[in-house]
Amino acid sequence: MQIDDEQYMCCALEEAQLAFQEGEVPVGAVIVRNGEILAKAHNKVEALKQGTAHAELLALQAASEKLGAWRLDDCTMYVTKEPCPQCAGAMVNCRLARLVYGCGDPVFGAAGSKLDVLAIPGYLHNVQCTPGILADECLRLIKDFFRQRRVSKK
């Protein structure tokens, strides 16, 4: 499983790199079912002028559209950064089976760092979570992005 997780996280990192090149916070997401990539997405908040255009939400929408169903209970999402509460809640609502993420977000993370929306006791559905896959690579991309933004503002 670890090798597959790293392979799909590399795909999510490619999406995050696209976001970086477009001036978006570099977060990428990929949704996989039975070894097939159903959806790829990256942040488009700035491009769409929409605060909800996070990579995770765009990937969930694309996967649901491809499958013709909103339940993703046999799918895994790979995302480069721990999801925010909005995105984690959408994963629960879509009945996502599993989330694999790269780097944690101790300030706003909702998959175990700051809070854990994916595993609230008593919820109808919980999402299995595997953190820390290619975490260094994922964090490096985010740090590079914000370092570049600070330099360009000077």
Description:
The termini are far apart. This protein is of the alpha/beta class and 154 residues long. The longest helix has 20 residues, at 2-21. The chain has helices at 2-21, 45-48, 55-67, 85-93, 135-153, and strands at residues 28-33, 36-42, 76-81, 98-103, 128-130. Helix content is 42%, strand content 18%. It has a five-stranded mixed beta sheet with strand order 2-1-3-4-5.
Strand content: 15-25%
Strand order of the largest sheet: 2-1-3-4-5
Major sheet summary line:
5 strands, mixed
The number of strands is 5
Return the structural class.
alpha/beta
Features:
5-stranded mixed beta sheet, 154 residues, alpha/beta
Ordered list of secondary-structure elements with their pairings:
Elements lengths: L1 H20 L6 E6 L2 E7 L2 H4 L6 H13 L8 E6 L3 H9 L4 E6 L24 E3 L4 H19 L1
Parallel strand pairs: 3-4, 4-5
Antiparallel strand pairs: 1-2, 1-3
Helix pairs in contact: 1-5
Concise account of the structure shown:
By secondary structure, the protein is α/β, with parallel strands linked by helices.
